[in-house]
Design brief:
Glutaredoxin; about 25% strand; about 100 residues; alpha/beta
């Protein structure tokens, strides 16, 4: 499965009401480290069936970025049962990202 583009309009449905844990990648087109993180998030989306991966473009979704106090990107937020359970900033290896969900 490919990552889902998350917006303020689909956030509740795709993240808060998701029956799977969700990893949200806050990124921007101009961000070099975000481009490094993108293939890792894509790989998780494609290979880990019980996790949903979403991407939030901070330039297009300023309201969501502000809601979660995103000051640096890439920032990855992990949600379980509609609750924020973990977060990390900067480029991380796949194993570190999955460990945010206890995998």
């Amino acid at each position: 499965m490919t990552p889902i583009t998350i917006t303020k309009d689909n956030f509740d449905q795709e993240v808060l009401q998701s029956d799977k844990p969700v990893l949200l990648d806050f990124w921007a087109v101009w961000c070099g480290p975000c481009r490094m993180m993108s293939p890792i998030m894509d790989e998780i989306a494609e290979t880990v069936a019980d996790v949903k991966v979403g991407k939030v473009n901070v330039d297009e979704e300023e309201e969501l970025a502000a809601k979660f106090g995103i000051m640096s990107i890439p920032t990855i937020l992990a949600f379980k049962d509609g609750k924020l359970v973990n977060q990390t900033i900067g480029v991380q290896p796949k194993e570190s990202i999955l460990s945010m969900l206890g995998k």
